[in-house]
Amino acid sequence: MFRSKLKTIVLALSVTMMAVSLISFPQESVDASIRGLDMWWEIVFPSLLPFFIVSEMLIGFGVVKFIGVMLEPLMRPLFRVPGVGGFAWAMGMASGFPAGAKLSARLRQEGQLTRIEAERLVSFTNCSNPLFIFGAVSVGFFGNAKLGVILALAHYLGNFTVGLLMRFHGHKENKENKEKQKAPSIRKALSALHKTRINDNRPLGKLLGDAVMSSIQTLLMIGGFIILFSVINKMLFHVGITAFLAKGIEMMLTMLHFPVELSLPLISGLFEITFGSQMASQVDESTLMHQAVIVSLVLGFSGFSVQAQVASILAQTDIRFKPFFFARILHSCFAAFYAYLLWNPIYVRFYSNEPTSNAVPVFNLGDGLMSQKILDSLAEFGPLITIFALMLYTIILAKRTLAK
After folding, report:
1. Cα–chain-centroid distance for residue 72?
2. Are 135 and 369 in contact (CB under 8 A)?
3. Closest Cα partner for 141 from 301, 354, 379, 358?
4. Is the separation of the CB atoms in 251 and 84 below 8 Å?
């Protein structure tokens, strides 16, 4: 009872402080909102929408079930999840946050995963996509395309390690089938594909409409969280809370022989990864290796903004959020460790001619880098794609409302 009352008081005070901060810093809050909105409708919406729609179609047509049967001998021994987890893992890495959570929740709703299996799966299928790591962070913030190799290796190796460790999650709660795994069978996979499509029993138009509606509803929710946490991060910075928390981080960085100037980017990155990564790239007192370790930690933790998006998606199912949060702590630690471990044998050895600090003109390597060109195209055409998709969503919603 006391804990419940304390939680009520803390939440009420937090929201009140947020309201007071918005009133005290109106211009800063508007700027932060615009920054979050720009990120959403230029990059996030147009880049994630195709993945979400195609994923829904693949599930409805039974292709995911087919992939699940074929990957069962691989995913079950490694991660103790069904073969369909391989689809969620691949799509999560390709499209980035929070596609892994979206697909894991969808597969749980389809009954293709138990709750424990879904919690294992969602813990390692949420990661940053290569476009963001190479284009936005490495080239956009650091002006160094080669840095993306270290960041990507550390991020995905950390993600894989988390998956191996989370296979032990719920071993006491979940009684699994101990039957010997058989070799994948094309006949069984095709049979599963056909049965899934027949059982779905939705016409193509209905399936496509449902895919569009579900995807856009999820992306609208994601957009709200991006804008909200962009404002929260800015308000925490202006009221001095970020600097206060950074004082505690400085002691830890000093013990690790890291520049204390990285404490502020680290705290900011724990709330929102883009802002934290950008701030880390601007710390002139730090070496590039120290910056890479901090950015890897931030990317692994994902930020409270992404975690709030995942929590909202998981709330639609019986999947618990705590295992996911614990996995993010593990991922941040492993990613930072791998970045430090791989720095000399990979970056220094193969890219020794690269500068060892961040004194590099921003975007100096962007002209010839495919990921940067994709980001530039999204920034140019992304808003048009977003507006068109929202218009389509409005038309479908209006037709379905009138048909009732």
Report:
1. 25
2. yes
3. 358
4. no
Report yes or no: 53 and 95 within 8 Å, Cβ to Cβ: no
Burial (CB count <10 Å: 0-12, 13-18, 19+), residue 350: exposed
DSSP characters over 11-31: HHHHHHHHHHHHHH-HHHHHH
The model's pLDDT over 269-309, given as tens digits with 9 standing for 90+, comes to 888 888 888 888 888 888 899 999 999 999 999 889 889 98
Helices (H), 40-170: 45-61, 63-79, 84-95, 99-109, 115-124, 130, 147-166
Share of the chain above pLDDT 90, in %: 18
Query: How crowded is residue 370: how many other Cβ atoms within 10 Å of its Cβ?
Result: 10
Predicted TM-score (pTM) of this structure: 0.82
**Residues 53, 62: Cα–Cα separation, whole Å:** 14
Domain ranges of the chain: 26-173+181-403
Q: Rounded CA gap, 83 and 334, in Å?
A: 25
pLDDT > 70 in the chain, percent: 89
Give the Å distances, CA to CA, from 22 to 13, 157, 240, 242. Answer: 14, 40, 14, 16
Instruction: Quickly count: other Cβ atoms within 10 Å of residue 145's Cβ.
Output: 20
Tell me the backbone φ, ψ of residue 184, rounded to 5 degrees: -60, 140
Q: What 8-state DSSP symbol labels residue 369?
A: -
Quote the crossing angle between the two packed helices 204-238 and 241-255, to the nearest 10°: 90
Q: Is 175 helix (H, G, I), strand (E, B) or coil?
A: coil
